[in-house]
Amino acid sequence: MPSWPICRALAPMCRRPTCKWQREPSDMVPGLITAVLLLLFVGGCIWLWRPGNKPALDAAAQMPLDDDKEGTA
């Protein structure tokens, strides 16, 4: 059974060591970006659900309705 040329080309890449101490630093970048984005999301959720933000969020929720009231008066 013949093997595909692409398989022979990628075979050396599959044989590289997988020891965690031999990985390149750039292998950790996607994980760090994910961790930072997760922290930003959780921080934003906590900030939005604080009781001190309720008046500002209520005012922002009423903004589209306030525009209609000004136009009919």
Give your account of this protein's structure.
With 73 residues, this protein is mainly alpha-helical. The protein is 67% helix and 0% strand. It contains three helices and no strands. The model has no long low-confidence stretch (mean pLDDT 79).
Features:
73 residues, mainly alpha, 67% helix
List the helices and strands and how they pair.
Layout: H1 5-14, H2 29-48, H3 54-72
Strand content: under 5%
How confident is the prediction overall: mean pLDDT? 79
Tertiary shape: elongated
The tally of helices reads 3
Distance between the terminal alpha carbons, to the nearest Å? 83 Å
**Rg:** 27 Å
User: What proportion of the residues is helical, as a percent range?
Assistant: 55-70%
Concise structural overview:
The chain is mainly alpha-helical and 73 residues long. It is built from 3 helices and no strands.
